[in-house]
Structure formats: C-alpha cells, structure tokens
Amino acid sequence: MPDLEPISKEQLYTEKEQLHTENIALKEQVTHLQFQLSQVNRLLFGQKRERFEPTQAVQQATLFSLQGSLQEENAVANPAGQVNTEIVKKKGQIAGKPNPNHPGRNQFPAHLPRVVEILTPEAVSDNPEGYRKIGQEVTETLDYTPAKLFVKQYKPTKVL
Prior knowledge:
Blueprint: H1 9-45, H2 66-77, E1 114-119, H3 122-126, E2 133-135, E3 139-145, E4 148-156, E5 158-159
Parallel strand pairs: 1-4
Antiparallel strand pairs: 2-5, 3-4
C-alpha cells in the first residue's frame, strides 16, 4: 500500500472551493450549449416564420426618410460620384427589354400640385442659338415637404 499523506483542513477547503467554482462554470456552459441547441433546432425544424435570421442588422425605415437615407448611403459608398450600372437579368427576361407582363408604374394623381424644374445642359445655356429642341422626356418623383405632398417634374432639354 502506498503511503498516504494526511490532508489538512485548509487544503480540503481550497480543493472544495475549486471544485465548487468549476461545477458552477460547467453548469453555465451546459445551459449556454442547451440554449444554442434549442436555437439551431428552431432554425432547422421551426415554423417558417420563425426561421428568418437576417444576415445583418436592418434598420426600419419610414416612407419619407428612405430616399434621404439611400442618397446618404450612395454618397458614402461612392465618394467619387461613380454610378454603378449593373444589368440584373431575371428568369425569362432579356436584359435591357421591359417585362411584357408588367405595365409599368401608375401615374401620380392629377390633384397633386406639380413643381416643374427645367434641366438645361451647360453647353446649351452657354450657346442656345446652336441647338434646337427635338423632344422631351418627363420624369416624375413624389417629393415631400412637411405638411404637403407634390410631384416634382424634371424636363431635360434634348438638343441636336
């Protein structure tokens, strides 16, 4: 039989405290792992509405603050003012051609007041006699100022 050394009460007390703290840490780890397992099970086997997990935090935007926030994001993403032109082709749709199943946007109501801004290129404003108007394309956007809605029309001058 090997020789057994007597253990003092202090050693027993410190060993008991170490085991107790280790036990508490292991219990916390078990509860954390059980929570993770329940989350994975919910994602895999839960109802469809419970499965949505966004890849990044999406902030809720209001109807009228969306336009300003998009312009700010574009200014941050493209500080040089470069425009990204990517053609996204949907299934059954030829790039550059309109979708035949979609008639387009609805017109804005006629009762909304219109604010017309005429856009003239700088070269035309410098020498208007050298150009003639060949057509006009009107773009309308819904704009908002506090307590009133109006439609803003942009009319670029097309010249030869």
